[in-house]
Amino acid sequence: IECSEQLRGPELNRFIEVLETDAARSGASALRLNHYPRCYAPTQTDRLTEQLDRRGFRLVGDTATFYRPVTPAPFETGLHASARRRLVKCRRAGFRVEYWPTPPIDRVLAFVQESRRRQGYPLTIPPARLQALLSRFPERFPVFAVLDGPVLIALTVAVLVRSDILYNFLPADHHAYRSFSPLVLLTAGLYAHAQQTGVQLLDLGVALDHTGQFKPGLARFK
């Protein structure tokens, strides 16, 4: 459910009531809402949560989303010392970040699939679906890459959720470069792009494995 900050409580309550009624008419015995991260729209989320609670809904899951507001300050501002060291290490090695407005889709797919295979994780999206999205909506699914000369060492398929929110959707890295942590440099590149394009929130995603279990190591990294 998305709504404006100006929407009043009674109107939102009426909207939920219509959803419940239509769900019941369709034969459903329950209605489940999967909500976007609260950081996307805090005021609307709190208002919606209040109305849902009044109508007898209950919270069955709450997963933390890691994010960073985009400000004029440099990416390094407030960065953990260990992450700052990794960033310096990547830059000293001469690695560079590139935005690919027209990405080589087959190369992107192959890299992401190989990275996930080595980690023992399946893709969270069917390859054919990802290929279609990159082909049809490249401006909504921008690709960013980290290169060591001609060698691709990390990339991500991001999602422009709306004009002011960029989601780091599908990061992947080269196993031989893990000691450099090129994903830190990649995140710095995403942040710089966000600063240049008016994005106000960089969503780094959740810290769950492919089975939905919390990953403490990934949470610390994010």
Give the termini separation: 27 Å
- Strand pairing plus helix content: what structural class? alpha+beta
- Helix percent band: 40-55%
The shape, in one word, is globular
Number of helices: 7
What fraction strand?
15-25%
The strand count comes to 6
Major beta sheet, strand line-up: 1-6-5-4-3-2
**Main beta sheet: strand number and arrangement?**
6 strands, mixed
Characterise the protein shown here.
The protein has 222 residues and is an alpha+beta fold. Helix content is 40%, strand content 18%. It has helices spanning 9-25, 42-54, 81-92, 105-119, 127-136, 182-197, 216-221; strands at residues 66-69, 96-100, 143-148, 151-162, 165-173, 201-205. A 6-stranded mixed beta sheet has the order 1-6-5-4-3-2. Helix 1 packs across helix 2 (42-54) and helix 4 runs antiparallel to helix 5.
